[in-house]
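Narrative of activities, Objective 1.

The group set out to show that a structural description can be obtained from nothing but a protein's sequence at a throughput compatible with the screening campaign. Below is one input-output pair from the validation batch, recorded exactly as produced.
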Amino acid sequence: MEDAIAQAEIQCVPPSGDSFTSILRVGRPCLDDRGTWSCSLSMDGLFHEDRPLFGDDSLQALCLAMDFARGQLQDFVSRGGQLFIPGTKDSFPLNAYFPSPNI
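Output recorded for this entry:
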């Protein structure tokens, strides 16, 4: 991803035990020539290509990309995977990066 505005490394350990590092990258929201806002997301090891998430404006596109990332990581954990801060045995603080909404 060329235009990443934020990224984080996460050590992922699936149930099989074959650890890998995923680099989560969030792209800059952009407006296409049709007037549609999108924000790209990539997560090495969890999916292989940039995923554009679309919104009514730049903020919604960014929020939807972040929500999609949280969902992918929660799904990984729900299937028995574990998330760690790279180079440590400390759990990756998923709720610190993706607080649950109180709506």
